[in-house]
Design goal:
With 115 residues, the chain is an all-beta fold. It contains no helices and eleven strands. The strands form two sheets. Strands 2, 4, 5, 6, 9, 10 and 11 form a seven-stranded mixed sheet that branches. Strands 1-3-8-7 form a four-stranded antiparallel sheet, with no helix packed on it. A hairpin with a 2-residue loop joins strand 9 and strand 10.
Length: 115
């Protein structure tokens, strides 16, 4: 199983980034897909989820209205569109696949918001 994140980088406050996570080795469409993040010195926190069946989405309050999670089951890929970024969004972002007792994480991609 592999989850490979990409799209991170350095962006100025107010800017945007789009993260991607390509999955292999799993029946992607069966998994709920999450984005989590971990800022320096802080615990990892959940950011967003898109469910397997209905494709329903939900967001942490800190990103609601700014971030959009989506998935393309044909490409086995989940995305996180991040707009209106601020320095508090600086973190390593991880995608995470979850199906009952099966959980897999990627290695993460760094997002730095700074002027």
């Amino acid at each position: 199983v592999q989850l490979v994140e990409s799209g991170g980088g350095l962006v100025q406050p107010g800017g945007s980034l789009r993260l991607s996570c390509a999955a292999s080795g799993i029946s992607f469409s069966s998994y709920d897909m999450y984005w989590d993040r971990q800022a320096p010195g802080k615990e990892r926190e959940w950011v967003a989820v898109v469910t397997s069946a209905a494709g329903s989405t939900n967001y942490a309050d800190s990103v609601k209205g700014r971030f959009t999670i989506s998935r393309d089951n044909a490409k086995n890929t989940v995305y996180l569109q991040m707009n209106s970024l601020n320095p508090e969004d600086t973190a390593v972002y991880y995608c995470h696949a979850n199906l009952i007792d099966r959980k897999y994480w990627g290695q993460g991609t760094q997002v730095t918001v700074s002027s």
